[in-house]
Design goal:
The structure is a single chain. By secondary structure, the chain is mainly α. The strands form 2 sheets. It has a two-stranded antiparallel sheet with strand order 1-2. Helix 41 packs across helix 43, helix 51 crosses helix 52 and helix 60 packs parallel to helix 63. The longest helix has 25 residues. This is Protein PRD1.
Length: 1292
């Protein structure tokens, strides 16, 4: 950070020495930022003298370039001597044949033109063009450098660059001459300048309307084409193609080929006659053009290729006889070159577009083009794929036209590979047509479908995996067509269903991992899900039995394939569509044995896919004995199956059907009937369930079904239940092996189970199983649907967060039992990790956990003789503590003695670890925990724990040492960001200090002398409490990295607030040295312009606080000596009065300066410069730029203070009243339409201390920021205060 003398404006011209060593006057000597000076006369003499040593010239130019980077030097040069260096720099450019010097001069001229106005630019262009027009440099290296400089200037794209050229004819004449030289460097520079001149004249001709370049046509065209043909440089080709494209666009090729002269200027006619012999001696322009474009078409530079292709298109587009010209180009093999470009393009725009434009215009020469098309067709097939897939591709029509031309007129050229590829493309086009994405003529649609069918049935296409890509859309298109025409041709649907079934089976017969077959399967599955299944469910009443059987059989074939993921996904789609209800409806419509068997076999496959372990075999075993009506199924369930194997299988089948259908709320009967049947089954078959080997799946099915219907009964408050059945089921859950976290269960059932206190012990064991399996579960959590899921940590977190169950109690008791019993450490860590994941997933769970006493469990962990010595356990507990304290609401915290004991252990661990290992990640997390404890103490909870932190001598010593080390670093502290160990520890220490300031004020009100921190004797012992002096905070804020600046600014603002409270309460005078506060203000004033709005706002508020302390000597210094305050106000006024105020970012960044301005207006004596800065015109400009949506609280505050100080006149007040009235209306409308601000906490449980730091900083910032509604309310209040002040003034 650089400081300037406060007595000088940062942009005022510095004092210069009276003369230089050569006696030149001081006005021509400019000072540099480093303290040196540059004499413009000496510099000009040096660089414009061709005899000057090149080393001296290069050094002088480098110094000038460095000086131009300094705003003050540049300002003085452009303000007082804008044209002084023009002539010397141009002279130097033409005096030295040293390339590095030339580059320096060109860069300097570019910089000066970029910083200066158009007059400086025009002067450079004029002088350089005169120099080039004269021919004095005789195409030497100096000529090339000067020409390059002109090209750079013309590339600035300012208006009317060509008008600055004095003698355009002479310049162009010299340039055309240069094209005939053998140097590619000269040719490239000449072509670029000619291109820029031609482009500028094309955009805006001279005042006399004369086109200079046309006077040199066709000589210019021939020379340019010869250069293009001979050169091997892509840069020269690019410039040449650019020039020729502009000339072609202006129609000069047509004029040249017709031997006509477009201009009527006599000079042009003379020039044309002089060049006639040159034109006739060489090849014709058409042949020369064809030869010249071949090499660029094969260039490796894509830009050159595209430019050449566009040139061909422009050339042919302007020709009156395009067929003849195309014939010539094709005979010269240009079509082959274009096809080769297309082949090598990789199907990437814009090469594809340019190639196809050229091929389309070449195709007018039909016979010649077909011969080339037979050879180049292979390059068109991938392009067809590309353009067909891009919506509204600009050359899609041209591509289709060329492909149709080939298929129609060149039979036999399509290979086996082409069959597969074209099949894919045509099938895709048909799909887009049927989906309404593209339109297609009937003939085109018919031919496309016919070609697709022919390609798929071709023997040449067999045995290749690419056929799968062709097939994937054909069955879908056939299905869609049949469904749309079902009323007219119902029998065709069976054929399309057969095609779907066989295509899906084919995709599994080959390599299932091949991407082509995978795409085929996905397409067919999508057709089943999105087309066939919805149609079948909505049309079930209108179809015949054979159609229904065909649809069910086709859908069933998907489930029978050995593909777990696809089959499971498809099964979920089926049951989500109420498949069970529709199946029984179908059975009601067609009650035949054939239909019953098909339906129940389908059910068994669904059960197999969703539950696994061949569970559907139970249904297949009972299929012949199952009824067709769901009510009859429930009757079967309510029977006793003792010694009746057939009944046993039927009841298991019914339970499985109810279990699967329940996941998607597919009710087969009334809830009362189902619950009654379940209870009757449990009671009648209790002995078989309890004392015989019941399968685990049956127990889990019963748990889910009973919990679901009991949960539904609880919601309705109407369905009675059997206590005996409940008792039997709970006993079954305690005695039998089952796993709630490996089964699928309805969320309603899960919630009901966790609401039953009688089975908390059983559920606790289930939770422990989950924790053992999910030690690192939060790294791969899968969130499931809101209806059913495989239970995981996410589901448990939802239960705990809801608070209407025993989820939190189960977790806390489980963890407490493990700690008390001294169980295995890995079990405890597993449970801790799951609890941490729960808190991380749902912050609201922290309140429930704390209310159920997790603090006591943590205390027991820290004081357990074995567990407290485990670093792994302590780390996990620390992260969990930070998450809990960061998420929990203060009112949910209780048991201060518990947290007090934990705090003591934390401090001991921190002091011991820092002394041995320094600031480790674990220590930083502990500091974060202590910070959160202090934060909660502001709500009068955890008071004793906070006192322990604040009054800990070892902790105070560690913090003081850290601050002392950081302050001793000085400017090097800027490198100690959050990525360094020193910076990271400093950030956490400052965060702890910030929260300690708030805590001390809350729990030790009025006992601490805050003014003692204004003392500059850092060695003086104040009190055994965490403290940092103000000057140390300012030093950290001045030298520190951005994060340190931010936290320190919050600390300083909090500290100043405490000093102000103490001063107002005791009416004390400040106790500090005379120059102490000015040194603090110097730091704060500079940071008002900080890019971080939070730092800028905090520093501005701190400045306001200092100014409001009312110290007379301070006010005198501010008024008379401090130019920084004036600069702040001037910048504020200039920004607010600028016409383009509408920048959203500024609506935030003006706020710090407003607070400083308001504080200056509140001083006892307002200096005259405030009146000058805030004059009537400035205030009027500010008010004119205000709108209802740009008004902020700070702006209203500023206007209120201006009103109190008498700065506002009646016109100002009228304008403000109008704006404020509109603003009020907007605010009231917003309050009616909006809801409460959604302020949610982010997850903070992490191994990364950076995320912990981020959370603490966000928490700190949120205490000083306001939500949208609060801000709007504050704005309305400020407007009311303004109106009140206005009323009081009118009353006076």
């Amino acid at each position: 950070m650089h400081f300037t003398d406060e007595s000088h404006h940062p942009y005022s011209p510095p004092l210069s020495p009276s003369t230089c060593s050569q006696g030149h006057r001081s006005s021509l000597i400019l000072q540099t930022l480093e303290g040196g000076s540059i004499c413009l006369v000496c510099l000009s003499n040096l660089i414009s003298n061709s005899n000057s040593p090149t080393l001296h010239v290069s050094y002088a130019l480098s110094q000038l370039s460095h000086a131009l980077s300094q705003p003050q030097f540049l300002y003085v040069l452009l303000t007082y001597h804008p044209y002084f260096l023009v002539a010397p720099l141009v002279a130097a450019l033409s005096s030295f044949e040293d390339e590095p010097i030339a580059k320096q001069i060109v860069n300097l001229i570019s910089d000066i033109c970029g910083f200066g106005d158009s007059s400086i630019y025009s002067e450079f262009v004029a002088r350089i063009s005169v120099l080039l027009s004269s021919g004095a440099l005789a195409w030497s290296c100096r000529h090339v450098y000067t020409l390059h400089c002109l090209g750079v200037l013309l590339d600035y794209r300012k208006n009317y660059q060509h008008l600055y050229i004095k003698d355009k004819y002479a310049l162009v004449s010299n340039l055309v001459t240069g094209l005939q030289l053998p140097s590619e460097v000269i040719q490239g520079e000449v072509l670029f300048v000619l291109y820029k001149i031609s482009l500028l004249q094309h955009e805006k001709k001279d005042d006399d309307g004369i086109d200079v370049l046309s006077a040199y046509c066709p000589m210019l065209l021939h020379l340019s084409l010869e250069v293009l043909m001979k050169t091997e440089s892509d840069d020269v080709r690019l410039n040449c193609v650019a020039l020729l494209s502009v000339l072609a666009q202006r129609g000069l090729f047509v004029n040249a080929c017709g031997n006509g002269v477009s201009s009527k200027d006599p000079f042009e006619a003379d020039n044309f006659r002089q060049t006639t012999m040159h034109v006739l001696d060489g090849p014709s322009l058409n042949l020369l053009f064809a030869e010249a474009i071949k090499a660029p078409l094969l260039s490796s530079d894509t830009q050159v290729q595209i430019g050449t292709l566009d040139l061909i298109f422009l050339y042919l587009s302007w020709e009156s006889d395009a067929r003849k010209q195309s014939q010539i180009l094709i005979e010269e093999n240009i079509a082959d070159y274009v096809f080769e470009n297309l082949r090598l393009s990789g199907c990437k725009d814009p090469v594809v577009s340019s190639c196809l434009q050229v091929l389309d215009i070449l195709s007018v020469a039909e016979q010649a083009f077909r011969q080339r098309l037979a050879i180049g067709f292979t390059s068109l097939v991938p392009v067809l794929r590309y353009v067909a897939e891009v919506p509204f591709h600009p050359v899609q029509l041209q591509t289709l036209k060329i492909i149709w031309n080939c298929i129609s007129n060149c039979p036999g050229i399509v290979s086996t590979t082409h069959i597969d590829e074209i099949g894919v493309i045509l099938a895709g086009m048909l799909k887009k047509h049927l989906d309404g994405l593209i339109g297609m003529l009937p003939e085109t649609f018919t031919i496309a479908c016919s070609v697709l069918v022919a390609l798929m049935t071709s023997p040449s296409s067999r045995g290749t995996s690419r056929l799968a890509v062709s097939v994937q859309d054909a069955p879908r298109n056939a299905l869609l067509t049949c469904l749309s025409l079902y009323g007219n041709h119902p029998s065709q649907l069976l054929h399309s269903l057969y095609l779907l079934k066989e295509a899906y089976a084919y995709s599994h017969e080959a390599d299932p991992t091949n991407s082509s077959y995978l795409e085929l399967r996905n397409c067919i599955l999508d057709a089943y899900k999105t087309n066939l299944l919805p149609w079948f469910l909505t049309s079930i009443n209108d179809i015949e039995e054979d159609i229904a059987l065909g649809v069910i059989e086709s859908l069933h074939s998907v489930l029978l394939q050995d593909s777990e993921i696809e089959s499971k996904d498809f099964a979920n789609v089926l049951v989500s569509s109420s498949w069970f209800s529709y199946s029984f409806k179908c059975l009601g419509l067609f009650p035949t044995e054939k239909m019953k068997r098909r339906i129940y076999l389908m059910f068994s496959s669904i059960v197999d896919v969703l539950l696994g372990n061949d569970c559907g075999q139970l249904i297949r075993d009972a299929v012949m004995n199952l009824p067709t009506d769901p009510i009859d199924l429930l009757f079967v369930l309510g029977q006793k199956s003792f010694n009746n194997l057939t009944m046993f299988f039927c009841q298991y089948a019914v339970l499985l059907i109810l279990h699967i259908s329940s996941f998607y709320d597919d009710r087969l009967a009334d809830d009362k009937i189902v619950l009654a049947s379940l209870e009757q089954y449990i009671i009648l078959n209790s002995s078989k369930l309890l004392y015989e080997a019941a399968e685990q799946v049956i127990v889990e099915v019963l748990v889910n079904l009973y919990g679901l219907y009991r949960g539904l009964a609880k919601m309705s408050y109407q369905i009675p239940y059997s206590h005996e059945a409940e008792k039997i089921l709970f006993h079954l859950m305690a005695e039998k092996e089952w796993n709630i976290f490996h089964m699928r269960i309805h969320l309603t059932s899960l919630k009901w189970l966790f609401q039953q206190e009688k089975i908390c012990k059983s559920l606790s064991n289930q939770v422990l199983k989950l924790c053992r399996c999910n030690g690192s579960f939060r790294h791969h959590m899968v969130v499931h649907s809101h209806i059913n899921q495989n239970i995981d940590v996410h589901a448990i977190a939802e239960l705990v967060a809801s608070g209407d169950n025993f989820g939190a109690k189960i977790l806390v008791c489980l963890l407490g039992e493990l700690v008390e019993e001294g169980r295995e450490e890995h079990d405890i860590i597993a449970v801790l990790n799951v609890v941490a994941t729960i808190v991380d997933t749902f912050p609201a769970t922290s309140d429930q956990l704390c209310l159920h006493g997790i603090g006591g469990v943590i205390q027991n962990l820290y004081y357990h003789p074995r567990l407290s010595s485990s670093s792994e356990t302590i780390i996990v507990v620390s992260k969990l503590m930070f998450g809990l304290l960061g998420m929990v609401q203060s009112r949910s915290l209780s048991g201060d003695e518990t947290w007090h004991a934990v705090t003591i252990k934390l401090i001991d661990y921190l002091i011991r670890t820092v002394a041995i290992d320094g600031w480790t990640q674990e220590c930083l997390i502990v500091l974060g925990i202590l910070s959160l404890i202090l934060q909660h103490s502001t709500s009068q909870v955890l008071v004793e724990a906070s006192k322990t932190i604040l009054l800990s001598d070892p902790l105070v010593s560690v913090i003081n040492n850290t601050i002392y080390d950081a302050c001793s670093t000085g400017p090097a502290l800027a490198d100690c960001n959050e990525g360094t160990k020193t910076g990271e520890s400093l950030i956490f220490v400052l965060l702890l200090y910030y929260y300690s300031l708030r805590s001390v004020h809350a729990i030790f009100p009025g006992t601490f002398d805050w003014q003692s921190l204004l003392a500059d004797d850092s060695g003086k012992r104040l009190i055994s409490v965490i403290h940092i002096h103000c000057h140390d905070l300012c030093r950290l804020m001045h030298f520190g990295p951005p994060m340190v600046k931010l936290i320190t600014s919050f600390c300083l603002l909090e500290l100043f607030s405490r000093i102000t409270d103490q001063k107002s309460r005791k009416s004390d005078h400040l106790k500090c040295r005379e120059r102490y506060l000015p040194s603090l203000m110097a730091i704060l004033e500079g940071l008002v312009f900080c890019s971080d709005i939070r730092v800028a706002m905090n520093c501005a508020l701190c400045l306001s606080v200092i100014l409001c302390w009312g110290m007379q000597d301070m006010e005198t210094r501010v008024v008379r000596q401090n130019n920084w305050c004036r600069l702040i106000v001037e910048e504020l006024v200039m920004s607010l009065a600028t016409p383009c105020l509408a920048s959203k970012s500024f609506m935030v960044h003006h706020k710090p300066a407003v607070h400083v301005a308001v504080s200056l207006l509140k001083l006892h004596k307002i200096h005259q410069w405030m009146t000058c800065v805030l004059d009537d015109d400035c205030i009027s400009g500010i008010i004119q730029n205000l709108s209802s949506d740009s008004v902020t609280c700070e702006m209203v505050l500023l206007f209120r203070e201006l009103l109190n100080c008498g700065y506002l006149n009646s016109e100002h007040i009228a304008g403000l009243n109008q704006v404020f009235q509109a603003c009020r209306k907007c605010m009231y409308d917003y309050q009616d339409a909006s809801t409460e601000d959604d302020i949610s906490k982010v997850a903070v449980i992490s191994d990364d201390s950076g995320k912990v730091c981020e959370f603490l900083i966000n928490l700190m910032s949120s205490q000083h920021s306001r939500g949208v509604k609060v801000r709007n309310k504050g704005l309305l209040e400020e407007i009311e205060l303004f109106c009140k002040s206005l009323t009081e003034e009118d009353g006076v």
